[in-house]
Amino acid sequence: MVVSGMSEDQLRRRRARNLVIAAALVALVVVFYVLTIVRISGNLG
Question: Which domain holds residue 34?
Fold first, then answer.
């Protein structure tokens, strides 16, 4: 199945790039979450 004239290889590369971007965003969210927890627990002590 070719979407908008893109070859299978181009679709595969786009899917891989999207997965990398999604993984980077999830990692960033996790880092912010952990930093927030550490800062909050540091203020309680």
Answer: 7-45
